[in-house]
Specification:
binds fructose -6-phosphate; Rossmann fold; single chain; about 600 residues; 3 domains; eight-stranded antiparallel beta sheet; Glutamine Phosphoribosylpyrophosphate, subunit 1, domain 1
């Protein structure tokens, strides 16, 4: 996720507004930033790595001057967070500047084509193809506007783009597919931006650009058309009256709910991991004699799922280990033959860093899955995968958990293919199912909201809650328990359901809520009998299962059905209702789910 903004005025200097707007977008990414303005027919650019404020101290954005400009704050996806990869990107003549949020899927083929026509690329980003494409069409005689539209029609993937040209300083061109873009107008200025909050500081007249649309922005007008056929779109500007803080949540009452709803996109982004890094990591794992998944909290649960799927798909045994336990549990035996796959959203969790520094010192290969690029973990790891979930503001991990899972599944399938452990049909089937998960999560979000609110009513006054899972969803039960406990403060217990009769069933009495996860695999019949066990002892059973399973509906007091995927991938789809249950329970208890007491987003102490 990145933030983009563009401002055009009929006269005067827009740089101060551009700078203030950019700062409001910083939550969307902060590893590099930049700004381009047109002055006297020339494009002027300041960009570098680092946070906006640092770059400003280094170069002073306000030293620029112009009445049309664009700016960007970056959360790196393609290419490291450094100066050349920072936006805006320009064409060969350095007269066209582009900022972009999203991922252009076909950039490699476009880049190859443009290089053959003589274009020289400076960065490793997907974005840089856009100014070169516009330049290419302008070379053939098209004006900036038409060249922009023609270029955008060639793009596949997700994008919100704004472009300016030193030769046409009377307009900003912008377009969107999947990534958000909002337009604004007022005070003799036209605006575009990734979100409403960065605009409400300047104007109260805003209008979201629709999917597959482009706009020509001038100081006093905005004209919108469809990218595909150029047909005009008529949509009125709306008056917004909200504070910047309210607007940042994009209409959701809390960041946590917003982030839960972002998952169809963030899972998709994680599935765009680059093949060469997956192959590289898979070869390190294949060569290791032992594999450890090392992580804390929610990320540890992702490691547990990883352990199941690596075994099932790639026949690789990996031990999930709580990071703070790693050194005392395995320290003496760690050697050069081992691989440690650290999973950490922040890449700064002290326990994780302690474990990997220790393992590295003993010669083990350190690998990582992270969300924050340029974090300490990325510097320690020999290879890391960037899950691309964007910044997570809610303290409780939600979208970053499913992003970790998607990355692990992709790695497991790469490993299975490279080790020759799956036949072509099996591989195709699993890949197809994995790539269906973003769409299925979208359906889940559309279907389960009311059911989860009903469950929250049941849980809100519970003394304690029990979560049961088996097989690949044992970790999902743990994750559901952690989410509920950390934001609603209801004591909760989770365990593999097979453990029931070895102790915990003594806690079951009339009315105790038991949340059980049932996937349609070899564990199902055992899970059903575990649910019977607790139900006959008076438990209220809340069962999450795949749609159309009659046996399950017989044992459920409340049944939450989610659309089917291969049972192996249900950890991605089943955790979504659990996140919503935790969220709504906290809200019903009058708590702020974004800021649970005593917790911090990044735990940098031991
Ligand atoms: C729970 C949660 C924490 C983190 C844990 C590890 O919702 O967010 O349990 O998962 O502190 O953090 P990272 O992944 O940054 O290492």
């Amino acid at each position: 996720m990145c933030g983009i903004i563009g401002i055009i005025a009929s006269q005067g200097n827009i740089v101060d507004e551009l700078y203030r707007g950019l700062k409001l977008l910083e939550y969307r990414g902060y590893d590099s930033a930049g700004m381009a303005v047109v002055r006297d027919g020339e494009l002027l650019i300041i960009k570098d790595k680092g946070m906006i404020e640092e770059i400003h101290r280094r170069y002073n954005f306000l030293s620029l001057e112009g009445s049309v400009g664009i700016a960007h704050t970056r959360w790196a996806t393609h290419g490291a967070p450094d100066k050349v990869n920072a936006h805006p990107h320009t064409d060969c003549t350095e007269t066209i500047a582009v900022v972009h949020n999203g991922i252009i899927e076909n950039y490699l083929e476009l880049k190859e084509e443009l290089m053959k026509s003589g274009h020289v690329f400076r960065s490793r980003t997907d974005t840089e193809v856009v100014p070169h494409l516009i330049e290419e069409y302008m070379r053939s005689g098209l004006p900036f506007k038409d060249a922009f539209i023609k270029a955008v029609r060639r793009l596949r993937g997700a994008y919100a783009i704004a472009a300016i040209s030193a030769n046409s300083p009377d307009k900003i061109m912008c377009a969107r597919a999947e990534s958000p873009l909002v337009l604004g107008i007022g005070n003799g200025r036209g605006y575009c931006s990734s979100d409403i909050p960065s605009l409400v500081a300047f104007t109260d007249s805003v209008l979201p650009l629709g999917e597959g649309e482009y706009a020509v922005i001038t100081p006093d007008s905005v004209s919108i058309r469809r990218i595909s056929d150029d047909s005009p779109v008529r949509r009125r500007f709306k008056k917004v009256s909200m504070s910047v803080e309210e607007a940042k949540k994009e209409g959701y009452p809390h960041y946590m709910l917003k982030e839960i709803h972002e998952q169809p996109y963030t899972i998709k982004y994680a599935l765009e991991l680059q093949r060469n890094y997956l192959d590289l990591m898979s070869s390190f794992i294949d060569r290791a004699s032992r594999l450890f998944f090392v992580a804390a909290g929610t990320s540890y649960h992702a490691g547990m799922v990883g352990s199941y799927v690596f075994s099932k798909l790639a026949r690789v045994v990996g031990f999930p280990v709580i990071a703070s336990e790693f050194v005392s549990h395995y320290g003496e035996s760690v050697s050069v033959d081992d691989a440690v796959l650290a999973i950490s959203q922040s890449g700064e969790t002290r326990d994780v860093l302690w474990a990997v520094e220790y393992a590295k010192a003993r010669g083990a290969t350190v690998l990582a899955i992270v969300n924050v690029l340029a974090s300490t973990l990325t510097r320690i790891a020999r290879v890391y995968l960037h899950q691309q979930s964007g910044p997570e503001i809610g303290v409780a991990a939600t979208k970053t958990y499913t992003g970790q899972l998607a990355s692990l599944y992709l790695l497991a399938l790469t490993l299975a293919r490279n080790r020759g452990k799956l036949g072509q049909d099996e591989l195709d089937h699993f890949l197809q199912e994995l790539y269906r998960t973003p769409g299925v999560v979208r359906e889940v979000l559309g279907q389960v909201e009311e059911d989860t609110k009903r469950v929250a009513k049941l849980l809100k006054d519970a003394r304690y809650v029990i979560f049961l899972g088996r097989g690949v969803n044992t970790a999902t039960a743990h994750e559901g328990r952690l989410k509920l406990m950390e934001i609603s403060y209801i004591p909760s217990l989770s365990y593999p359901a097979g453990e029931n009769k070895h102790g915990p069933i003594s806690l079951v009495e009339k009315g105790v809520p038991v949340v059980a996860l049932v996937q349609d695999d070899e564990t199902k019949k055992y899970m059903l009998s575990n649910i019977h066990e607790v139900r006959t002892r008076g438990a209220k059973t809340i069962v999450i299962s795949s749609s159309g399973d009659e046996e399950v509906s017989e044992v459920a007091d409340i049944l939450i059905e989610v659309p089917r995927v291969d049972p192996l991938f249900t950890p991605i789809t089943y955790v979504v209702p659990l996140q919503l249950i935790a969220y709504y329970t906290a809200v019903l208890r009058g708590l702020d789910p974004d800021k649970p007491r005593n917790l911090a987003k990044s735990v940098t102490v031991i």
